[in-house]
Amino acid sequence: MTHTDISDRLRRLFYAVFAACFAFVLASALLRGVAGTGPARLALAAGAVLWAAALYALARLAARYETALKARFGIVLAAFSAAMFLLEFALALALRHGVWYDAAALFDGAAEWAETGSFPSFYEYYGWFPNNLGGMIFLYVFFKAASLTGFTDWYAVAALVNSALLTASMAMAALACRKLAGARAGVLALGAFALSPQFWFLGGAVYTDTLSMLFPILIFYLYLLSREARGGKKFLFYLLIGLAAGVGGLVKITAVIIVVALLVDLLLRREWKELLALAACALALILALGGGLNACIYSRHLSREEAAKNNTPLLHWVMMGLKGDGYYNPEDYEFTRSLPPEGRNRVLLGEIARRVGERGPLGMADLFSKKSAADFGDGTYGADDFLKIYPETDTPLHRFLLPDGEGFALYQGAASALHLALLGWMLAGACRLVRRGERASRRDWLPLYLAFFGVWLFLMFWETNRRYFSNFAPVMIACAALALADFGPLGLANER
Questions:
Q1: How far is residue 90's CA from residue 86's CA, in Å, rounded to a whole number?
Q2: Angle 344-376/330-337 helices, nearest 10 degrees?
Q3: Residues 6+ positions from 147 with CB-CB distance below 8 Å
């Protein structure tokens, strides 16, 4: 058996595992997700089927006009990007709201730093949660730049930046799909974004989830470009990947999962030189940016001694993810903070082992089902977690966007049905790859599926939260668009 045969079998094995796991995710989301009653579950399932059919009809239409789309793809992309950016920014301003706790630490901390040169009001918070420092620094850069021009409406600046990043993530997904499966796949991705109402309202939901959404799909697109480059140009793309991973990882660490997927892809291709070069560039820039941040923060603002004492260890969130349904609970914070720094991780590991042991295999499977439903089953992406914080005005939109509004169930159901339809098409694409295997034209899809699988696996052992997967939503939509293009009447016959 050749090395190529072994790699192809490993890929098929992965897609089979992916298909099994995400069939489990989809079933969990339908049975244990946002629909709480039998009739509501039937309505959600019916909605998902209708959305899946509508997306397939859109794929057939895109295939019919493949030549025209190919000739005008740049115009379509530019028009979509301009319209989506303006829509997101305008809605963000209309839904202007306040901030509190975690969101306040990012937003008000960045504003205080831009105004005064430091952020002492939030020293205590960042002593406990240094993982959010990257998000605050990211916002601070834009706040400081705005302040130099005399503009200090920080909400408007944050919404402007967030809307631009969200729009860029959609454009990157469309460009990646076009490169992999032709213009119609790129347009299908844009269509999925345009139809997904949650994306319209994310501009004002400024937090690490949305601020980091661009980076995973950007890293993948840079990887596609690097595969066509040679010599120094290829190395430049690797440096850009490392830079995007460094910045994205500082904002939200899950963004780095896509880099691991790229390295696995190169490993399966047995491209050792490229594997080492990309790994070296990514690791060097991730460490350099992280080290630079720490040097700046702990030499000028925070205390390393206090950090060693108060920083919340990563194992805390793993432990908390094993209690109940895995959601935030204050009791586990009290437990973690009661432990002395020396030996704290050992105690947390012991508690993690105890909770896993108490659940057993069936209990863990049940927990994974609940987490899958909660983490991947809500199509709103949790934007209301922010939009509900001290809204400055009461608009008709709030009746649909906030949980206590009379139209929220309708909005959540419609958004979730489309979200599940996209998950379903991504799953269908994996099943097709298991059955038919990879042609050369499909081989570059692997990092997308690997990364999304990695996010799911990570979240099964982390705190439960419906927002935490959302920075990989463009990856999911790219997978769905590729599957739709592959299932269309022309398949991949007219790739470019």
A1: 6
A2: 160
A3: 114, 115
pTM of this structure: 0.94
Neighbours of 267 (CB within 10 A): 14
Residue 491 has phi, psi (to 5 degrees) of 55, -135
Residues near 285 by Cβ (< 8 Å), separated by ≥ 6?
Answer: 239, 242, 243, 245, 246
* Each residue's pLDDT tens digit, 445-455: 999 999 999 99
Using alpha carbons, select from 253, 257, 175, 176 the residue that is nearest to residue 212.
253
Treating both helix axes as pointing N-terminal to C-terminal, what angle do 3-32 and 446-460 enclose, rounded to 10 degrees? 50
In angstroms, the CA 311 to CA 364 distance is 28
Question: Collapsing DSSP states into helix, strand and coil, what is residue 394?
Answer: coil
CA distances from 92 to 201, 208, 392, 489 (A): 7, 17, 12, 39
pLDDT digits (tens, 9 = 90+) for 267-284: 999 999 999 999 999 999
Q: How far apart are CA 179 and CA 441, in angstroms?
A: 10
